Amino acid sequence: MSGNTFGKLFTVTTFGESHGPALGAIVDGCPPGLELSEADLQHDLDRRRPGSSRHTTQRKEPDQVRILSGVFEGVTTGCPIGLLIENTDQRSKDYSKIKDQFRPAHADYTYHHKYGVRDYRGGGRSSARETAMRVAAGAIAKKYLAAKGIQVRGYMSQLGPLPIEFKSWEAVQNNAFFCPDPEKIAELEAFMDQLRRDQDSVGAEITVIAEGVPVGLGEPVFDRLDADLAHGLMSINAVKGVEVGAGFACVSQRGSEHRDEMTPDGFLSNHAGGVLGGISTGQSLIARLALKPTSSITTPGRSIDVHGQAIDVITKGRHDPCVGIRATPIAEAMMALTLMDHWLRHRAQNAEVSVDTPRLEQYSR
Amino acid sequence: MSGNTFGKLFTVTTFGESHGPALGAIVDGCPPGLELSEADLQHDLDRRRPGSSRHTTQRKEPDQVRILSGVFEGVTTGCPIGLLIENTDQRSKDYSKIKDQFRPAHADYTYHHKYGVRDYRGGGRSSARETAMRVAAGAIAKKYLAAKGIQVRGYMSQLGPLPIEFKSWEAVQNNAFFCPDPEKIAELEAFMDQLRRDQDSVGAEITVIAEGVPVGLGEPVFDRLDADLAHGLMSINAVKGVEVGAGFACVSQRGSEHRDEMTPDGFLSNHAGGVLGGISTGQSLIARLALKPTSSITTPGRSIDVHGQAIDVITKGRHDPCVGIRATPIAEAMMALTLMDHWLRHRAQNAEVSVDTPRLEQYSR
Amino acid sequence: MSGNTFGKLFTVTTFGESHGPALGAIVDGCPPGLELSEADLQHDLDRRRPGSSRHTTQRKEPDQVRILSGVFEGVTTGCPIGLLIENTDQRSKDYSKIKDQFRPAHADYTYHHKYGVRDYRGGGRSSARETAMRVAAGAIAKKYLAAKGIQVRGYMSQLGPLPIEFKSWEAVQNNAFFCPDPEKIAELEAFMDQLRRDQDSVGAEITVIAEGVPVGLGEPVFDRLDADLAHGLMSINAVKGVEVGAGFACVSQRGSEHRDEMTPDGFLSNHAGGVLGGISTGQSLIARLALKPTSSITTPGRSIDVHGQAIDVITKGRHDPCVGIRATPIAEAMMALTLMDHWLRHRAQNAEVSVDTPRLEQYSR
Amino acid sequence: MSGNTFGKLFTVTTFGESHGPALGAIVDGCPPGLELSEADLQHDLDRRRPGSSRHTTQRKEPDQVRILSGVFEGVTTGCPIGLLIENTDQRSKDYSKIKDQFRPAHADYTYHHKYGVRDYRGGGRSSARETAMRVAAGAIAKKYLAAKGIQVRGYMSQLGPLPIEFKSWEAVQNNAFFCPDPEKIAELEAFMDQLRRDQDSVGAEITVIAEGVPVGLGEPVFDRLDADLAHGLMSINAVKGVEVGAGFACVSQRGSEHRDEMTPDGFLSNHAGGVLGGISTGQSLIARLALKPTSSITTPGRSIDVHGQAIDVITKGRHDPCVGIRATPIAEAMMALTLMDHWLRHRAQNAEVSVDTPRLEQYSR
To answer: Is the pTM of this model over 0.90?
Structure first.
């Protein structure tokens, strides 16, 4: 395939450009009998929707999703699920200038040389707008997994230089940053306001966690659960790093410290982040991702045009000063899609497996 | 597939357990006409071979690879390349004790519950021994890419708490650590000796770089070059984190700092690590991976057996006190396999593309 | 995947039920720079459209296709192409009776038991209406291949008991049967009229031919060009048999008769149908497919309902008395998609191959 | 992939040339816990082995298969199964002449132009010898399916002009032709002896049947059970046609005749061949395949050499005068692999499905 499909058994194939008529996706492999309605998808779409606060792009998109197939009388039929979102706010503007420019740190330059042609309106296919369909498809996986007792949630764990401590899931839902610490929000607001005055942007770190994951998901050796998760998370726009459990901190750890010891009462720690040998342990699956600062800032930058001439670029338009702020639902979606795919893959090969050994209850975090 | 295949057009499928009769792989999709001999594969196999220094496992394996098909009169024919390495040093021992134990931080527990049965001898399929076939297959990709002007190399950038500065590629070849700084080696040796006395293990960070990568490799949106690379690197045993370019450092960077500006003379920096929008920029492709400390240490650890009873585990046997020490050739192999796959994928879809825009010469690093 | 995707590099994924809101497809892997408009797709869609003659279903569907992505300023961009056709004539009717019945020789029984739930309106996903999207996607492949000098065309070679001789391609375009013999049409018309009076249906045989195919397309050993073609053609509703070249006639042939001898002026025959060892020879690719008679007839048939009770079924509604009549454009589409996929696959692996041996000009047929 | 893998969940990847050191395969996706030994594979390998009668090639190959991984203490572990067969009888001969010749109806010409290089010894990769690995892998699928009550068997239904009636499965096992009619064997013997005197070859038709198939296997719309089966059967060397159930006979059938009516006691016929809408009905899965006459005959034939010069070719060496004679185990293997793959695929998506509707007992044939 040419890269627009994710998953092997629960497959999501997407299409759509930032300023085209619509975005769409086909979800193939969803088990039949799952109660599903557009409302189930809309919830997460609204969580990532632009314009929800002054700290995100002011583009106004209702992102109303339609289910065009695969659901009959309120339940999935086992047939492919067609999803569609019409683009409504493609503000018509004059692209004559930008069409010949390569914005620094944008995909303009690479798309131009790879394909020889590109839809330059709003970034075309490389726009973060593409992630709307990941969230819609991810919501289907989330609903299926929830029925199996698996809950996928995320939060912002760092905004630029400001680390954020986890306090509660409740807090995450009550602010535009997906910040788990209510007392930190004022500081984040102030930081973002100053950033906008500086006409600059900043990076962020998101943490995603799946609780209730059973032991046994993941296919060694190449399609390890953590390897496929890394694939999914790194495929999100602007992501430059992914880590599981202790992550890069494990470099300076010693074996006696890193190894998660076990007792009949459960694991004593979770430095593994819920994966051993590429297979889930039954503990929480924990991952973190690093998102780079938005490249579209109004501070002039040096670049070249399609003729190779030096130019100064100022990226006007409606952009997120921190793409990470809206990334939490997207990261949740990619983790849910990964788990869903591996749930089906595990079931295909191991349906007969029954082990009478006690499974360890999962470590709280 | 069930997880033992890597790549979509240049596919590597492997088999083999640590103490089985042999390891093998099938490389499918290699272009015809490539001069190839077993010697081309043996070089990298020797670089990762155990027992090459007192700091790695003392298991003695010649790791002699045989090419069983796909090569005729010294050149590849376009037919699948069968590779085989016989296991010679499967020291026969009494496994009656270990067979019922779950070693902490090992895949024992997860394999047991996923499959209901496992080859407990030396870790079976979950043993790092499996990576020998990655290296063999990667060497084929490396040779093909080299002919295209692409060179993939790696080095150790941190050992436990000791960061290592890059000094020269020459240095990397002259020590068991793949350390790029000759003056650092004595310190590493001392550290490892003390570690062994402590009966403990430690993690490491490896940096891998591909130079000479053309602009245009990578398939948005899910099969981005960096996403597939993250998949490949995270699939290596013991890897807990992967980053590209600035990686996690981008979280606290500002857009004005992170963005790589361009001039007619080239890029002015490479925080992107050679990828924009999932497509190679023509700069060096730069990735780092974090490897956890070996779980097999002789310091007793709490665990349970298959009956759920509490036990103390002491892992005897021949183990690497730092799996990272031998990981450099493996990381190179996974980067080479990823680039090779995308080279073919790009060519399939874009063979007609010809862009007269000047490609920027790559930034030195 | 779960079966709704065709192709490995030029992939077509479809969705949509007979009486749902819309049908859709995503074509991924189309090379950039191809001039493409909705008119290019509409031509073939109109050729398969129902209601074009009194010998096909009277359902009225304009089958107006929309291109939602992947095409910018008239040319493909290399990004996925989203296609959509709204269903307009889903005649609302009372399904309370049919919903509990299994129509003989229909997919009702198998869908019911596979999925436990089914969209019974007009056959849902199992309706031949699904093939509209194959035709739309196939038209993209046809246009690309045409630019390479490859022309894919088909015709009806038998209607029920009436064999049809090939006279000319011109003739094929001028009748509702895709009949290549103008003098045969009256007979076909009379046969169909009588069939309708008999309240029965009949099968048909379609022949598809690709001219201008270069030597070298096809991937041994499992993805032979003819094997993938058989996959594609057998996946069309109602197809029960596929043959290439001499087909089943080769059983009673002798080697001295079947083998296509070669001279410097070309092949002397084409019993192979354009494929040797799974790779195209450069001759015309020739395949035939057998379509069963429509199962939906008004003559009562014995069956059971979902409760296992015996029932008599009379299938009312708007059905084709011979599905084969509209099958020619669908068969062309599947051959075009197969060739397109293998064109890209061949190019990926063999771009460097240059053989100075003379290629034989293709045998006329 | 480049064509050497069959299946999506139960995948078989093969390598090996006729005169290379060995043939091999990797079977990935086999469920754990299946009792498996080399003897299970050897049985079918012996059934297809050359030299078992005077009517097949006199090449002597023990075809002793080794299991190199994936099986531990007599049961499969869920890890990839590595298979190896050493080539022992690669009679060394002078290839200087044949290396520059294209044998008519052979893959010489197509391999030469596709790859630019080829292993001309005994046909290299295009040799029927490759099918040994299909049989070995198929035996694993057969054993798994047998435990589920599915039995896959085949027989020769026509030899050249001689149709063969099915009498009994017992008969099939007692002759070199896999002939189900004991009284027909003398005629077949005489026919083959005369054929050899004529220095010619002939085609054959094989029928393959799977009994005990449950309702529900197959993934609409492209990966229909019959479409994937057609793919598998058409991928066998020399196969030119595949049909399911009534096959091409359905062209002249009427709907009232073809449709398989149902009663509470079961189906009343099986023209469908066990598949409706691409999903198994629970009846016997019935397919037929046509194999062309061997191209390697000693009667001179016109051809060209690599320089494009006209030549006369006489194919000496050890060849089957009728490749169909040894094709039955191969066809069984491909049907078993197809069913096995779809068993796992069905289970992945539909594990929760439970339908209380009575399943119809299968029609005897």
So the answer is: yes
